[in-house]
Design goal:
The protein is of the alpha/beta class. It contains five helices and seven strands; from the N terminus they run βββαβαβααββα.
Length: 167
């Protein structure tokens, strides 16, 4: 898979200590994007999924995996393998996507890898970054149009259900 970067112990990409995988490649090119260096699909570094999993599991303090980017759903098959490994090791999985939950559901109808990854994500921060909606006041997201979606409840309900952090 193509990786822009890996970070241990992030506290801004979900609750607790996160292992963050910044995947390489995004076609959205949002104005004001926080990670424009991840746009080039051919950029970054090629890594084996197994090596990323080993890095994720090397830190016993890790609470969860966060898939960011770039656009994780462009590498859905590989990200699904990472998410499955995270769950097998007791970690929760968060993902950021420029697509909305509803768009991902539509894409999943014709792309089973997207469907599989969506099934493995616990919480999705969805929607394109909109510079005019930029804010520093919302937890875990950069613009007001983005949502923090409880994926399991959303799949059961057939529509987006907001995540309740209990915090």
């Amino acid at each position: 898979m193509r990786i822009a970067g890996l970070i241990q112990d992030s506290i801004v990409d979900g609750p607790g200590f996160r292992f963050v995988v910044f995947v390489q490649g995004c076609r959205m090119h949002c104005e004001g994007c926080h990670n424009p260096d991840t746009w080039d699909i051919e950029g970054g570094t090629a890594m084996l999924v197994e090596d990323v999993v080993a890095e994720m599991l090397s830190n016993p303090l890790t609470d969860g995996l966060t898939l960011s980017g770039g656009e994780p759903f462009l590498q859905a098959a590989e990200c699904a393998l990472l998410a499955a490994a995270a769950h097998e090791n007791g970690l929760n999985v968060w993902a950021y996507s420029g697509h909305t939950f509803e768009e991902l559901m539509d894409i999943a109808l014709s792309d089973s890898d997207v469907g599989e990854l969506l099934q493995l994500v616990d919480v999705l921060i969805d929607g394109a970054f909109v510079l005019q909606e930029r804010t520093l006041s919302l937890r875990w997201r950069g613009s007001r149009n983005q949502r923090v979606v409880d994926v399991k409840r959303s799949l059961a309900a057939g529509g987006a259900v907001e995540f309740e952090s209990g915090a």
